[in-house]
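subagent[fold] <- orchestrator: predict structure for attached chain, return tokens only, no commentary.
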Amino acid sequence: MATRTQHDHELSDPKFATFLFSDTRMAIVWLVARIYLGWQWLDAGRHKVTDDGWMNGGLALNGFWERVVAVPEEGRPAITYGWYRDFIQFMLDNEWYTWVANVVAVGEVLIGIALILGLFTGIAAFFGALLNFNFMLAGTASTNPVLFIIALGLILAWKIAGYIGLDAYVLPRIGTPWKPGFVWPHRRSAVE
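subagent[fold] -> orchestrator:
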């Protein structure tokens, strides 16, 4: 068994970070952020799932991708990174817009619902941030940077962001890899 030396240090979060991301008194702040972000996703997704251009063949996404991969003769292209432009062009060439449009539209609705209900908040915020990041890579700023920052906050505050929501009931029951529950049952170590 290894002994602890004076060079071993236990790292801990600053008190402010602990208060902001782990203290249940901040749950109300994260509730407001969560509902705001959830509504933004739900509203954006609702428009897409009721739009034939998104749900029937993905022509709306096709048009968007064609615009962002275009390199103008003068000025700057919408996509700054060549590798991302190549990725979008690959998806265009293979007509992935036919199914990716449905994934985006339905995904936005599900992210919105999960955030509003406070269900798997950290996971929903992660997928929302992933969508925001991809929209930003495609050259569409709009509200994406602000929504991305809010999503990052919710990811960091995942333990309390859903405290006033379904996470307070669901997460203790299903468990986590470090805390037993239905999905993650306690495992006995080989030493026991």
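orchestrator: received. Logging for downstream: The radius of gyration is 21 Å. Residues 27-49 form the longest helix (23 residues).
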